[in-house]
Amino acid sequence: MKFAAINAELTPLCPRHLQPMNRVDIYVSADGQSAMVHTPAYKCAVEGCTVYYEAYDGYHERPEGAVKPVPPAHYCRDHKLAMYVTTHALKGSVKHYKCPHVGCSQLETVRQAAAAS
Ligand SMILES: [Zn+2]
Ligand SMILES: [Zn+2]
Hints:
Blueprint: E1 21-28, E2 37-44, E3 52-54, E4 58-61, E5 68-69, E6 84-89, E7 94-98, E8 107-111
Antiparallel strand pairs: 1-2, 2-3, 3-4, 4-5, 6-7, 7-8
Bound molecules: zinc ion (2 copies).
One zinc ion binds near residues 16, 17, 44, 49 and 51.
């Protein structure tokens, strides 16, 4: 298996706060058995927010080491990597997701469903 070439300097936004996230290191084991390897991740800078972003797991929370996805997840069709929020409009009701792979220009625009009235 070839590791994906993930851009080392991503600037993901927290999907809840639309704020820049801080670079952190988390430790993961590919299959839960093998050695833990550290992987670059990002954590929301807003106090009390526990949302992380990582290129394979996407947006998630990590209660006691578990990985709890924060929906919705969008994956790049070409690289099978979790896309991150790069920009937004209309107070976050339109979000632009980008693939973390180096050189990938895949973008996805997601509009929040309008509230039923
Ligand atoms: Zn947040
Ligand atoms: Zn891609």
